[in-house]
Design brief:
With 328 residues, the chain is mainly beta. It is built from five helices and 28 strands. It has one domain: Alpha-Beta Plaits (2-Layer Sandwich), CATH 3.30.70. The strands form eight sheets. Strands 1, 4, 5, 6, 15, 16 and 17 form a seven-stranded antiparallel β-sheet that branches. A five-stranded antiparallel β-sheet has the order 19-20-25-18-28. The structure holds zinc ion.
Length: 328
């Protein structure tokens, strides 16, 4: 398998949302789910003729192409989801990061401390957990994706006119936004270095088109360390296994939320909802055996006999800071 770092540059606004309300799709996600990115790549490979219909069916039945969640790029730098130990002061706006202290505590078998008050002015802190953060001048800062909100009118097919009460609100990520992610391809899948892909909703109306660039990663971080940061949502299970890869999880620090797992192409039905820890959760785990790229892009899991992808991407804490270009 080959590990790539992918960069996705949006050429048109994208509607990637976490929640559907009565008025339409609102509340954009701060990241592109790995399953969305994977679907976009498979569709693009199919369109380009490098995958056939039976290849897509085989991928749905037994996934080999793995993708992490895609987080934004801010001012040319990668953002990563904040751990539960990163917070910002409501008074002075400074960011406090107790992640490394938490790692020390976890390694020593102690309970880590969460940031409570600003050390400078005693101000109350707001947790940045799971929100994208990036480093500038050696300091972590929260990043907010640029979005815009628009309303479109539902058109009646019979009358060809606007229907009262059929308004759809959506919030779209602006074009020009850039994202990064890990991708693992199996040895027998030819991956081009550049692909035109479409993500999110409204693709037939021109939303979500972008250019995906892939760069192979040759140097693997040392994954023998036991404390990790999850780049994708994480399944709160004691053991995660996929093919010859096996992960034993002893502790997860981070809130769980219920996530609808999307459409199952094989079973032609909605997948169940499961509780997942948010990106940025800290995971104490042991890699029993397997190949590093699979753990980095994230092991797929089986829920009710259907495969779910785009979860469980793990970074060592050193790698977490190296990717944000924070030294020390
Ligand atoms: Zn403060």
């Amino acid at each position: 398998m080959t590990l790539y770092e992918a960069r996705l540059l949006l050429k048109s606004p994208a509607i990637v949302t976490v929640r559907k309300t009565e008025r339409g799709y609102v509340k954009p996600s701060s990241f592109i789910p790995g399953s969305t990115l994977r679907g976009a790549i498979l569709t693009a490979l199919y369109r380009a003729g490098s995958m056939k219909e039976q290849d897509l069916e085989a991928e749905a039945r037994s996934p080999k192409l793995l993708t992490s969640a895609a987080f934004p790029v801010a001012e040319g730098r990668r953002t990563l989801p904040a751990t539960p130990f990163i917070a910002s002061c409501k008074l002075c706006g400074a960011t406090l990061d107790l992640t490394r202290n938490a790692v020390e505590a976890l390694q020593a078998g102690r309970d880590p401390e969460f940031p409570l008050l600003c050390p400078k002015d005693g101000g109350p802190l707001e947790s940045l957990y799971s929100r994208p953060v990036y480093a500038r001048d050696g300091r972590l800062r929260p990043f907010r994706l640029k979005t815009f909100r628009a309303t479109s009118v539902g058109i009646s097919k019979e009358r060809g006119s606007a229907v009262k009460g059929l308004l759809f609100d959506y919030e779209a990520i602006t074009d020009g936004a850039e994202f990064w992610a890990w991708i693992v391809s199996p040895n027998d899948m030819q991956m081009p270095s550049r692909l035109e892909v479409a993500v999110g909703r409204g693709q037939s109306r021109g939303f979500g088109w972008g250019e995906l660039n892939l760069r192979p990663v040759s140097q693997m971080p040392n994954l023998q360390k036991k404390v990790f940061v999850a780049l994708s949502p994480f399944t709160p299970w004691k053991e995660i296994a996929w093919e010859s890869n096996n992960l034993k999880v002893s502790k997860i620090l981070g809130r769980k939320s219920k996530v609808q797992l999307g459409w199952d192409m094989v079973k032609k039905g909605l997948r169940p909802s499961v509780k997942l820890s948010k990106p940025g959760s800290m995971v104490v785990a042991e890699l029993l055996h397997g190949e590093p790229p699979a753990f980095i892009a994230g092991l797929p899991v089986q829920v009710n006999e259907s495969w779910v992808v785009g979860l469980n991407s793990l970074l060592t804490v050193d790698e977490y800071y190296r990717l944000m270009e924070v030294t020390g």
